[in-house]
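Q: Okay, next protein. This is 4-hydroxythreonine-4-phosphate dehydrogenase from Vreelandella rituensis. I've checked the sequence twice, so it should be correct. Can you predict the 3D structure?
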Amino acid sequence: MSGLAQARPRLVLTTGEPAGIGPELALMLAAGGDLPSGTVAIGDPEMLAVRARQLGLQVRISVSQPGEALPESGPGVLAVWPVPLGEPAIPGVLNPANADYVLQTLNVAVKACLAGHAQAMVTAPLHKGVIIEGGYPEFTGHTEFLRDACQVSEVVMLLATDRALHGQVPGWQGAGDLRVALVTTHLPLREVADAITVERLTRVARILETGLRQQFGILAPRIGVCGLNPHAGEDGHLGNEEQTIITPTLNALRAEGLDIHGPLPADTLFTPRHLAGVDVVLAMYHDQGLAVLKYAGFGRAANITLGLPLVRTSVDHGTALDLAGRGQADPASLKVALNLAATLAGRKRLG
């Protein structure tokens, strides 16, 4: 490799559920020359070649192995590290026989990043249900899988709209500028309250504050925290988690020096006046925060996992089985996630 090529961060892109839109998003970006230089996809080369033909995309699949030099990037070339499918993939048709394949693509990406063969990983969407049906009943999603694969005790899911992905944006400026992190991620709603503990909330807040400083360059992050219950519990009349767990924990974190606000009712915190005073909203559960985030910037946002020993970003959407194989999927979010991964990887190397 030349010195210039070595200086570019290498990104590994897992192509996700083979029956979904992930493979074709990678192909669309490759066809248009929109993949960051140094990007290599992980997936089944034959499946990718077949999908390209189905969509009428002129893309050459170039196969190599982790640690080998990649070909020069450019329009019409997709570099691939191969992982074989369990069975042929049909767009829009889930097959549990390919659960192992999806998880193997993730394992290859993690090992490559930890070994220094790549500086960041980007994930196309997978389908949790078919992986569970494929023999992995404990599987709950990318975030938790990567936590366990990297052997860390806690990670934080952060989603941000395109403008808010850059640390130079000082907090909320208007619609489309929003960062949302989660205390709990992929849990049934009836399990959420029990999962919100002093220990978890403390770990998540510390990881979030550190991640915003180190990865986003926000020197003094201001964190707004949602309550769990309607009206943040209404002084205990609508639930007491705010009184017994959340407020005492936030007080302790403030005593440590974190600039943390709340707990506030979610329908209060997600309003312009309150968003203007924070850099990120910490929501208690998945839909409390992400419904607002996706309304504000769906298709222009990325998912970042904080707390890992590697850089990981992802798209803000699912597998879109109804669009798979039709050439109608929008690669905008994947492009945002790839460009963000390149930026964060570059910062990490310089740091």
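A: Here is a summary of the prediction. The longest helix spans residues 198-216. The longest strand covers residues 77-82.
Q: Noted. On to the next one.
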